[in-house]
User: Fold this.
Amino acid sequence: VQLQASGGGLVQAGGSLRLSCAASGRTFSRYSMGWFRQAPGKEREFVAASLWSTGGTYYADSVKGRFTMSRDNAKKTVYLQMNSLKPEDTAVYYCAASSAVASYSAAAGYDYWGQGTQVTVSS
Assistant:
């Protein structure tokens, strides 16, 4: 599976961005997908996940109510709609995929990673 993330950019606080992650592979619908982010000097942290096994979508507390993850299996693409952005959301955002993720919030559980897209939120 190859992943290509896009959609990052510079936005003012309170603004919105939509990230996309396009995947290759024939069994995309049977992959769990995750979004993570990494700010300078910090560890990579979980943002959101979409599990194929349960059909559920899960969010970090820090983004709950502001970010929405969705997937289009026909297009082999996942999205992260980010609203009410804050300066602390500034980071490189990565999408990830796993055919059998044990813990959806742990980066180590994902087998494939995209290259990352920069999101910068100015105050």
About this structure: Residues 8 and 119 are 5 Å apart (CA to CA). The radius of gyration is 13 Å.
